[in-house]
Description:
Number of domains: 4
Order of helices and strands: HEHHEHEHHHEHHHHHHEEH
Strand order of the largest sheet: 1-2
Number of strands: 6
Radius of gyration: 32 Å
Amino acid sequence: xxxxxxxxxxxxxxxxxxxxxxxxxxxxxxxxxxxxxxxxxxxxxxxxxxxxxxxxxxxxxxxxxxxxxxxxxxxxxxxxxxxxxxxxxxxxxxxxxxxxxxxxxxxxxxxxxxxxxxxxxxxxxxxxxxxxxxxxxxxxxxxxxxxxxxxxxxxxxxxxxxxxxxxxxxxxxxxxxxxxxxxxxxxxxxxxxxxxxxxxxxxxxxxxxxxxxxxxxxxxxxxxxxxxxxxxxxxxxxxxxxxxxxxxxxxxxxxxxxxxxxxxxxxxxxxxxxxxxxxxxxxxxxxxxxxxxxxxxxxxxxxxxxxxxxxxxxxxxxxxxxxxxxxxxxxxxxxxxxxxxxxxxxxxxxx
Length: 351
């Protein structure tokens, strides 16, 4: 009798373990089906917006409405287990690459919001930047130029200049979809200022140059220099001319705001009287003429120790530098004749 009781108890234990195991397997299969089975093809690529302060429960309701979840309660359970029951990163999410509900959940937990990318390159103008921002879907050209023309907005950024030109640092940026235009511009301006090291700021103070002075001179250097080693030399030329109260005679300033730099510069351009044309006005222009990179900014602050006052293109991406107008005139004549000679011989002339 005792043995039969033990036997019966043993069988009951086996049955109990079998039942528990079966339940666990069923639960595992159910969880796996809910989490890892691919979503229907028509549900992939769905997009949702998570506003600031949205609870996890509301987030999963939104996902459920889009057909991206099979059991939102399982998702809530997982989030609680992981200790991730918190405010999710606000923004727009697209699940084009998320083929399963668990993939959707991981995208949400990692805050993979839709981002629009833009690259500003050295020497570009605000017109180039506005066009790129619109093409990237970050802001309209209208919004950009509205902010550009707003003195109150520029003042809020501590910009003492007639526009945003030169203050939008050339770099690659990623902005969440529907990021506020004001914040976009602030990020670019802050990025520019982050490159002004304590040493640069100290040197500016010693030389009496303001932020606008540095960016303006740097923008001219950016448009004139092709090879890096010439940047501080070109800077020295303009700094030397400023000290002697000579006009800068910087070609790129003559067409700023009139036409694109790639359209070339004519004698008529040099004679045109605009606030930016340094052939007609003394001193630096009212503000930058393009977006200077860090190399040109450093060159503007740390010019080479040279006596030059003039330079002319050697038609090979470099320049010939001169100390006097007489020497400069001879160099101009020489390289002009050389350029025409190269053209006649049928060889390429790259400047």
